[in-house]
Amino acid sequence: MSGNGKKAHGPRAVLWLSLGAALAAGCASLPAQAASNDNNVEWNGLFHDQGPLFDDHPEPTAAQAVTLTLRTFKGDITSANIKYYDSADGQFHWVAMHWASNDPTGVFDYWQGTVPASGSEKYYRFQINDGSATAWYNAAGITSSEPSAGDFFIVPGFKTPDWMKNGVIYQIFPDRFYNGDAGNDVSNGQYTYAGCATEKHAWGGSVTSNVGGCNSAVFFGGDLAGVDQKLGYIKNTLGANIVYLNPVFRSPTNHKYDTEDYMTVDPAFGSNATLQTLIADIHSSANGPKGYVILDGVFNHTGDTHQWFDRYNWWSTSGAYESQSSQWYGWYTFQSWPNSYSGFFGIASMPKLDYGASGSAVRNAIYGSAGSVVKTYLKPPYSIDGWRLDAAQYLDAGGNDGSDATNHQIMAELRSAVKSVNANAEILGEFWGNAGPWTDGGDQWDGAMNYDGFMQPVSEWITGKDYGGGSASIPVSQFDSWLRGTRANYPTNVQQTMSNALGSHDVTRFGTRAGGDIWKTYLALFFQMTYVGTPTIYYGDEYGMQGGADPDNRRTFDWNAGTITNSAVALTQKLIGIRNQYAALRTGSFMTLLTDDANKLYAYGRFDASHRIAVALNNDSVSHSVTVPVWQLSMANGSGVTDLVSGSHYTVSGGSVTVTVNGHYGAILAQ
């Protein structure tokens, strides 16, 4: 075990035979008669995750014991044990499992064991025996020898927001969504910043500036009033209920990641009162489903025009750039005052905040005090529901680059500050790799932007491109293995609040990676709305908006396409509606059913006590007949299933359902 049982692998490092590969290699007919006490553990019958059928307390308190359920083929094994590592004593412990019941079809046995209650974090795996044969099972897969990484988590006292688990996010870059108030539009030459005069471009026009190097000075007039006026599209037409806004605070650029004043909404977007109205309207259930609001917190750095820094003497006070006697001088890290200082990726316009030691003035200003930025917007009259933390791994002291003990201390303090105002608020960190160091202890983030475990593998499998637009193609078996490996990086309640997007303001548009093929967007939407995590739609991705690298990925929304008459928008509405209807698609178990590299087919199950759902996806350009082994989901022969998209009905026969799926499309088979 890597020291204390924590994960040590990345998405491509899981070399053990995964359950997906085992299932793909298995037959599609009922194999129950093959299972017996014959010194051979039948891997194809093994299953456990921390879905509601297999873990009775996925978010336990320190006082709750956790009963775990393991599935095997009926009569196949002679014994099973839970082996768990307890961080309290640094030791492994064993719990003997007992036979508990059969599944409804009589094909499977359920074995159970209970990990005793305590407040310490634990990691567990299963040892499964059939006479002299032994198999091991953990989140990374099934192995014949004991694994050294990839265990399941038990993190007592760690609760992630249920509204995030059950919601759908719509991400908006405010200047490019909708112009609701022409009176606050930025005009040509209204002001100059860093040698760039503002440019007002016509809606739908070029995002590139007329002057080289001045793309951040291009404005289109999108604002908070525009978002408010289009809530009907977001909440009703699409069915999304969480609005994530890119930065809205005062800043001289269109992207606002160089904050000038955390306490003031940028005038081009409206006023603080406009923001309050928008939040109240999102929260309202009078205009569609009750919604939630996540704001972008840019706390690693400020802009160089912030009062604390004031590089251009815009404020009457004396900033750190202006005087070493400034009250804010120690809030930044200067190598040689005034022109050499730590910045975000060395960018001079984004001077990096120096968080100092616990209790420092910077920590108090950002999150620690009652009047801090973080707490102000969580409290009335705003009452936002969460923060997305920009460049979160870089927050640090002394100009350091973060991802160290000080960064984790800052994040733990920030979590305490957030939860002290609203225990149900979301903390969503930006990290592009394995975010486990910030999530697995339950004391920092609730989840992260899932570039590593969703956006990148989905892009490579469906489009043959990485999220930057470079060539990178993977077969479905590798796609499935990648997904299993990245799920294993996180506790289940973190997996369920990971932000799963096809694109963002920082990468090329999915529609462009797909070569403009809207059917690839269809397929991506099928997967996005049925996979583990919180679906996140970057505005326009629902209709296949085109766009290359920044700033081209921030084009204006085409309101001729943003309508239910658009086939992709209509499919988005249908798929979100299906997700909202079935809890199994949100918090149910995930089981791989089929990987077919030759025909580019993928099938998996999502299930709980109420519903069994098989999803079949076709990544080929032509239609295929897919035989899905639904016996793995305990679907009985003769029972009926319905494709929730087409409405077609099927009957389970020989343990399977055979369905024809169009190229770059899917089927969602439920019972």
From TrEMBL:
The record ties this protein, via CDD domains, to: AmyAc_CMD, E_set_CDase_PDE_N
Pfam families annotated for this entry? Alpha-amylase, Alpha-amylase_N
Domain Glycosyl hydrolase family 13 catalytic as annotated: residue spans: 171-579
InterPro entries associated with the record = GH, GH13_cat_dom, Glyco_hydro_13_lg-like_dom, Glyco_hydro_b, Ig-like_fold, Ig_E-set
- Please list every transmembrane segment annotated in the UniProt record, as residue ranges: none
Kindly give the SMART domains that the UniProt entry links to this protein: Aamy
Signal peptide region = 1-34
According to the UniProt entry, its GO molecular function terms are: hydrolase activity, hydrolyzing O-glycosyl compounds
UniProt keywords, alphabetically:
Glycosidase, Hydrolase, Signal
One GO BP: carbohydrate metabolic process
Q: Which PANTHER family match?
A: ALPHA-AMYLASE FAMILY MEMBER, MALTODEXTRIN GLUCOSIDASE
Q: What is this protein called?
A: Alpha-glucosidase
Native organism is: Fulvimonas soli
